[in-house]
């Protein structure tokens, strides 16, 4: 046998073992469920990930609802883009700045309540297949919404409805009830090297 | 002072300190750059994150190119969705299954080469503002493409062009030249609890 054919043979064996593991996992994964996903951590890509899932959902003919609980200083590409599809995406952005921009706890709470009212409507609408609650983790961390009310609404949502909650500092109570939790960590960030937020990437 | 007004005052002070830190970071971040982002780790949301950035880019009137280096067994929502916009997104999916599905190293290398030819064209086209090389990390980890060629193409791409590379196991040489690196870790995954891949979320 040549070195190359040995290499190819080893590769084949390694991939066969891998396929076996994957096949077993697939065989064991037999039921469908409306998932609760939490995407947390301090790294770049949490909200982007949720918006990628909105794109995926639309590709399957599903409908999506988005509530952005933190409105940044700039208009965002994702909002402009998804507002192109008013029949497919219901899009709500909280009307106020937030946290360190407002420095006003009462105003923040009012804004969070207003956002939550919209979220709750989506979470009781079986026609919406995917609900994105962008940056809700921060709202919950600051205690701006009664936790009990949020957990109840998630629990009572229509069967089959997926929910994605993003933002750093996800609270333990939410992680406990989530189906999938990803933590995005910052290994390196352009911003800290003097590069400002770039359109299409951060905005 | 009431307990509530003390609480509000403390909040205000905390947020003012936070704003100062953010303001200093923003003041120091003064230049623009075509970013190289690497999204790696074993958690859910890496590719979704890249597709969210495609959505963001389109919202800003930018153009995007996508090469998916691993074609799964199922048709994906993101492909169906972004193919709606042929003038805005150039979309290429490698024609073969991959790794543990094919178990054929030579065929994988050929498929990787074909994908790379498309990627290289995008990476030399200044009209494409964002290039997503989905799952390229795995291709590089397996050594299916000459690293030197990949690094050169990234280095020589048009100024201002953003590139997002996804997939677990990003190699050190790529992390070294990236502007931003996020690692997505799996805290919990529905799949391992017997729930199969859900449309809009994983597919």
TrEMBL record, chains A, B:
Record's subcellular location: Cytoplasm
Top-level enzyme category: transferase
GO terms for MF: ATP binding; corrinoid adenosyltransferase activity
Keyword list, A-Z: ATP-binding, Cobalamin biosynthesis, Cytoplasm, Nucleotide-binding, Porphyrin biosynthesis, Transferase
Main location: cytoplasm
Chemical reaction(s) catalysed: 2 cob(II)yrinate a,c diamide + reduced [electron-transfer flavoprotein] + 2 ATP = 2 adenosylcob(III)yrinate a,c-diamide + 2 triphosphate + oxidized [electron-transfer flavoprotein] + 3 H(+); 2 cob(II)alamin + reduced [electron-transfer flavoprotein] + 2 ATP = 2 adenosylcob(III)alamin + 2 triphosphate + oxidized [electron-transfer flavoprotein] + 3 H(+)
Pathway in which this enzyme or protein is active: Cofactor biosynthesis; adenosylcobalamin biosynthesis; adenosylcobalamin from cob(II)yrinate a,c-diamide: step 2/7
GO cellular component term, pick one: cytoplasm
CDD domains reported in the protein's UniProt record: CobA_ACA
Entry EC number(s): 2.5.1.17
Gene3D superfamilies: P-loop containing nucleotide triphosphate hydrolases
InterPro entries referenced in this protein's UniProt entry, alphabetically: CblAdoTrfase_CobA, P-loop_NTPase
Cytoplasm as UniProt keyword: yes
Any GO BP annotation: porphyrin-containing compound biosynthetic process
Pfam families: CobA_CobO_BtuR
Its job: Required for both de novo synthesis of the corrin ring for the assimilation of exogenous corrinoids. Participates in the adenosylation of a variety of incomplete and complete corrinoids.
The family this protein is said to belong to: Belongs to the Cob(I)alamin adenosyltransferase family.
Protein name: Corrinoid adenosyltransferase
């Amino acid at each position: 046998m040549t070195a190359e054919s040995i290499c190819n043979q080893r590769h084949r064996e390694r991939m066969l073992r891998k396929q076996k593991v994957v096949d077993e996992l697939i065989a064991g994964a037999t039921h469908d469920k409306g998932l609760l996903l939490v995407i947390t951590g301090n790294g770049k890509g949490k909200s982007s990930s949720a918006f990628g899932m909105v794109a995926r959902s639309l590709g399957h003919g599903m409908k999506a609802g988005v509530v952005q609980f933190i409105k940044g200083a700039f208009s965002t590409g994702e909002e402009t883009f998804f507002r192109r599809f008013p029949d497919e995406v219901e899009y709500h952005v909280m009307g106020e700045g937030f946290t360190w921009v407002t420095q006003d706890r009462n105003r923040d709470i009012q804004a969070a309540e207003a956002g939550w009212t919209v979220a709750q409507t989506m979470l009781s609408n079986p026609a919406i297949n995917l609900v994105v609650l962008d940056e809700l983790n921060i709202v919950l961390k600051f205690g701006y919404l009664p936790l009990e009310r949020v957990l109840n609404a998630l629990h009572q949502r229509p069967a089959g409805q997926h929910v994605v909650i993003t933002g750093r500092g996800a609270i333990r109570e939410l992680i406990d009830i989530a189906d999938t939790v990803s933590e995005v960590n910052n290994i390196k960030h352009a911003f800290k090297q003097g590069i400002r937020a770039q359109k299409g990437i951060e905005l």
